[in-house]
Amino acid sequence: MIADTRTNAGIDNIAVFRKLKIVSEPGRRTLAIATSGNLSVSQSVISLLAEGVENPETGELETLESQPTMFKAAQLVGRAVREVWRVDGASLEQMTARFDVQLLFGGQVAGGRVRLFMIYAAGNFIEVTPDTPYFQIGEHKYGKPILDRAVTYETDLYDALKIGLISMDSTMRSNLGVGPPIDVLVLRKDALVPELDFRIEPNDRYFVDLRERWSRALRTAHMEIPRPPYGANVPGDVEG
Amino acid sequence: MIADTRTNAGIDNIAVFRKLKIVSEPGRRTLAIATSGNLSVSQSVISLLAEGVENPETGELETLESQPTMFKAAQLVGRAVREVWRVDGASLEQMTARFDVQLLFGGQVAGGRVRLFMIYAAGNFIEVTPDTPYFQIGEHKYGKPILDRAVTYETDLYDALKIGLISMDSTMRSNLGVGPPIDVLVLRKDALVPELDFRIEPNDRYFVDLRERWSRALRTAHMEIPRPPYGANVPGDVEG
Fold it and tell me: Source organism's superkingdom (chains A, B) (predicted)?
């Protein structure tokens, strides 16, 4: 899971906020949430999950740590989103702000599979499958072409991380609302503890090198393709 | 200038429409308009320009052919956009459709420079400069990273065409609303006649080859970048 840290309320109001939240009880569960959209909404969702979401039937406060499966945990995140909507949604809309939030929720609970969900503002969610082995939230378009071409269900974990960083780089170059540092989590199947939990700073040597190499590779790649052979004055539909 | 030909009113209602209009009087002027947005709006703008836009001061009908400079011609296109807004804007909004149109307008009038403008729905416009030597309209994000990295003001015309086609390919792969055939215009400085006016069909041999080579190049490019060196269990901010 990869998350940038930039938030903005206009281009003259930019700040750094961590958007990758990790909850780990080594050997029992490792869960992670990445957020995009309205920061007040996503922070409220995270805070609510930490304090506990009330179960409407039992009245008990439920947390991610108390969920027996990833599916149940994803449902709980969805309920937290709906609860924030219930409290803040109407007021946000009165101020013409949108209740705009999307989350990636992934991880593993002992005894279950590693699962990755994308959770929408309505609290509903979808899950990664072999056909579509990745999700993006937030500003996703600039960085999608490389993911579509290079990431499969069989991709090595650190190749996937590398390609994810290339994708992030493309996004950061084109949208000032996405920026470093970048938080990274690698979770290996059945490890039940983060294998890598790292913040890549803007001057990180590997990341700077990756950005330069990728730019150079793109420039070289197109040079190796022949120029279009389409001749001069091919009949077309010029109108005089 | 490169334009796809796909329009849609929902994914179950897809059609082919030419969106690249060329007006050429060889030796005197060659102008071209590419459109995006609501097809009824852009077609009305094109039709109005063909019939003539009334000059509010003289009452005369003005066409692109009657404009002495590219700047004046761009203003005329802007006036055509405003005229369509005046006639259709309110009704569109009543039906919750947006008055959504963007145009590229470029070319050369004898005695003037080659110029390229991007014209907005309000009829205002901006012009390409050496710092920003290209414009995109419509679905622009997927295809922007390669343009940003590979196109400069000094890029050879047919290299630029090639890079433009790569950019289009990235867009078509990610957005079903963008599709072949692709119309292409190459206009060389002071030629005052199209050097290339060509429709690239979906099975065009060069374009199919370009798509395959580019996909392969992207996959190879990332393989030549080393994997991230970030070690296991780097101290981070795991919270239990």
Answer: Bacteria
